[in-house]
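Students often ask why we bother encoding 3D structure as a string. The short answer is that it lets us treat folding as translation between two languages. Here is a chain of 382 residues written in the first language.
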Amino acid sequence: MSAESTDQYHPGLEGVIANETAIANLEGKEGSGGLEYRGYRIEDLANVVSYEETAFLLLHGDLPSASQLRDFDARLRAARALPDPLVDLFRKIPPTIHPMDVLRTSVSVLSHYDPDVNAPPGDHAANVRKAERMIAQMPTAVAYHDRIVKGLPLVEPRGDLDHAANFLNMVNGSVPSETMRHAFDLSLVLYTEHELNASTFSARVTVSTLSDIYSGIVAAIGTLKGPLHGGANEEAWKVLEQVGAPENAERWIQDALARKERIMGFGHRVYKTGDPRSRILKEYCTKLAAEVGDDRWERIAEPIEKAVTTQKALPPNVDWPSARLYHYMNLSIELYTPIFAMARVAGWAAHIVEQLDHNRLMRPRARYIGPPNRSVTPLKNR
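And here it is in the second language, the structure alphabet:
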């Protein structure tokens, strides 16, 4: 190893190229700072393709034909059920446990019941089948646990509903309106993939040891739980709750900025001129606020967004509108990050498959900053 490679230090690995990938591109066309899934701009995919189509794109390399989508969707709908022991476990886990911890455990348990459990880690076809099952089962796990914690009867998956409508029905006990269904589906599409973020990186590191895909997803869920990554959407909603009313928003944000507080839901490590996903979701916040007849949260959010963007040059990221979007859907704040996870599992799995298809063990170096070489003093003299 060259001296140069060991001397260079990039805090947080910022700017370091650790992988080559054909899955996502955060540069966009001509370095515009956009987001592409396998060459398709997110603006072109939004409102045109469903989450099911997006998951197929990431796992199989291109958008599906009509027949491919029918087969893929049928496989997902057929795989939604959970093994009884996992449902029994939900009833025994203390209700105070965060749903992300429960989801992490759920994926680990589901691995024991996967028919491809003994397939070699590098078996591409088996990994894709496992990924499809996790895409189908994770929403059921999230919904079941939420209902159990709230003391409500379970709502079984419905084979006549698509991925988005089925989840909202299992959580709320009623089929969503078309506007809500579409908005939720869109949020899943936008959350599905985002190149080498922290959780995706942890998944790739895990399987680079030739561990299995379930271990990689468990690692990713644990990483996503943190408030600086997936938990940011929960924190974004807490900001709105702290403000409480539209008339408080201007004073609250100016005081917060004067104290140099970090406002969750703004800024991004990669996007410096704005997150394209945020711009896409914002209009649906307005639509759903009108549908539920309460635009209070939009009137709180607007002056905060304007102040942080103009005074701090930090545009909103996807977590800022998604927090309001999920509130309008009657989803508990504790579900925000698990929803992120059940969308992102398709992206995580695609990266895991890609890693295992072209594997090299990830083993970076660290710069030592401790004391220099020291002599050892015998115990009796210390």
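Translate back mentally: The mean pLDDT is 92. Keep this in mind for the problem set.
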